Automatic annotation (TrEMBL), chain A:
The keyword Electron transport applies. Keywords: 4Fe-4S, Electron transport, Iron, Iron-sulfur, Metal-binding, Oxidoreductase, Repeat, Transport. InterPro entries: 4Fe4S_Fe-S-bd (IPR017896), Nitr_red_bet_C (IPR029263), Nitr_red_bet_C_sf (IPR038262), NO3_Rdtase_bsu (IPR006547). Pfam families: Fer4_11, Nitr_red_bet_C. It is found in: Cell envelope. Residues 512-552 are annotated as: Disordered. It comes from Aeromicrobium terrae. This is Nitrate reductase subunit beta.
UniProtKB/TrEMBL annotation, chain B:
The gene is narI. Coiled coil: none annotated. This is Nitrate reductase-like protein NarX. One of its GO terms (cellular component) is nitrate reductase complex. Pfam families: Nitrate_red_gam (PF02665). It is a multi-pass membrane protein.
Amino acid sequence: MRVMAQMAMVMNLDKCIGCHTCSVTCKQAWTNRTGTEYVWFNNVETRPGQGYPRRYEDQEEWKGGWTLNKRGRLELKAGGRLRKLLTIFSNPKMPSISDYYEPWTYDYATLTDAPAQEHTPVARPKSLLSGEDMKIEWSSNWDDDLGGSAATEKHDPMLRKIADKVKLEFEQTFMFYLPRICEHCLNPSCAASCPSGAIYKRSEDGIVLVDQDRCRGWRMCISGCPYKKVYFNHRTGKAEKCTFCFPRVEVGLPTVCSETCVGRLRYIGLMLYDADKVLEAASTPDEHDLYEAQRDVFLDPDDPDVQREAEKAGIPRDWVQAAQRSPVYALINRFKIALPLHPEYRTMPMVWYVPPLSPVVDVVKDTGEDAEDQGNLFAAIDALRIPVEYLAELFTAGDVAPVDGVLKKLAAMRSYMRDINMGRDPNGAIPQAVAMSEEEMYDMYRLLAIAKYDERYVIPPAHAEQAHALEELATECAVSEYGGGNPEIFGEGSGGVDPIAVENFQMLKDRQTSDTIASPSDRSARVNLLNWDGKGTPTGMFPPRADETEKP
Amino acid sequence: MDVFLWVIVPYLCLATFAVGHFWRYRYDKFGWTTRSSQLYEDRMLRIGSPLFHFGMLGVVGGHVIGLLVPESWTDAIGVTTEMYHGAAIGGGLVAGVMTLVGLAILIYRRRTVGPVFSATTRMDKVMYAFLGVVIVLGMWNTIAGSVLSVGGHYDYREGVSVWYRSFLAFQPQPDLMADAPIGFQLHGLVAFGLFALWPFTRLVHVFSAPVGYLTRPYIVYRSRDDAALGSHAPRRGWDRVG
């Protein structure tokens, strides 16, 4: 047993309202630069839909991820090492910018510069790649809320697999949102595809990162990732991907997408897993068994054997404790209601999803039946094969049984909790029908419905004694070598450098989690006016009050 | 003049080449990339780029054999001059035509595709000019010198190659180069100019040819400890006393 820790996420799709706040805040934080205009580390897709980039899920076309060869051994779907090197001069499977979209801006200047004329001047769209006028024909969310889906729906690779039934019953439309970030896989095919070895998995927390100094722009990761979550920065010529906001996670804060999620649907926590079993699990012959195989790779943090092995592997004690409190572990292995996205790619993804019950509830509600009665819901889950089969194509390689199980648990929770909320006696038969105890069901409800900030995000900070090596804090500055730290000598920029995570994120956290006005007392903080929320008066911002100066 | 052209200039270029690469690697690892433009345009690149690069590999291989392997070695294993020149001209023509056609497609693409053209730096243009001239002159030497025998026959294995090996051994014999036909002289000079430019262009990606990929494990794990992104090594945690 070789215990490793992995920072993982679960998203509860029933709560996603498709507001794209996560995408926008992520973009503001990470990809608001030239060269990454089309890059969305986090995007929200309307399903059924083509996704972003278009039809990325069709691995027969894109050849992302892993596959089993004739001898049953795991190999990259796009071919082995030699083949990769032979196609290095022109990657045959790389999406072009038209599969994403051509980024553009508007010629806003004409709105103010235009001479007096009969017609109102318009700001024409200009391509950000060539600077020419362009016609906007596609973007990252062109089919948002099923917009234009009559024309584009047929291109959804997942829907096509169950196409014969859809034709008959498509008038019973269903829809849900799928927010996606990098999966930070246990068996990342992007890293395996990188000829330079620039993509690595951090051994402490499993976050998959691109070393910008080692990336040489061979572009194999972009085609190697089946989720198409590694992007090519066309200005720097290097690959970039979601970082799981490692500067924030290292100091115990959730990712930007989670922090700003309006629906509070994201959960972050640690998973302990057995690194020796990953390859075997990824090589499971039957695609339908991949979900269970991956669950078997995870270790129970309450097991004394696991704790002992974790200690041997150098995982700090408080990390094991965090793994015990991990909401992600609870959703995946205790309640078993979270499912991996496309396990059939065999990358062992680590961002899991609680599938949405809402398509089923909506249909029952439309019929005028009681949409919170577990009998009605169970019958509907069985009858509404299209949403269920579609979800199965996304989360269990097409195996309907696990999705059925999850949806029934969610339906049971719905009707069980209704009794409690209405002041009636809870019906113990309902949790029993889905093989759960009443207590478990209530715990599940608590975690899904009312878990607070510190229950949804159980993130142990990286250790202070390691602080020097932390990527975020490794900001040794030349000035400090001259005994710096005196902020008065050379003006604003002088003195020791405060790492951003300490200066801003920790302050932010203090402010969010304390009842009183918070300001760091152990350091002379510089206040960022943009972040100042009006709480308190940081020292130095205002001249001292008259009555204060008179006091001794 | 001969000493200047065939001793001083080549060594200056070689020094620039070596020191330039050291400097670039030390200070600009972030800029060390192929700067691929495949994202912008795929159709022409799919033909042009493999043609050019594989052709170039052949051309480089041919130069290594032609310049570094002395005639006495090939004689020793029983390769006659006719066999040698036949193979050299045949291989050289195939590789050269591939390279030239590939380069033509790539330059045409670079000029006509809007996004690719606007991502082209001034350095790229200078580099393309040098590269194009070197390749055209090399082709001219092969065709005019060896196939058509314009201006008489010249055996570079007894001239240019010997000079090149003497140059690498730091015992240069400039008179050998001074006697070579003008085509060979120009080809050599422009090539040395290209070598001097090399470390400051995107051509540096040649030196990161990912051969290690064939043997390394698929998944790379790295600890936070050795992944320090800061350019400075951690300072020692103590101060000297006294």
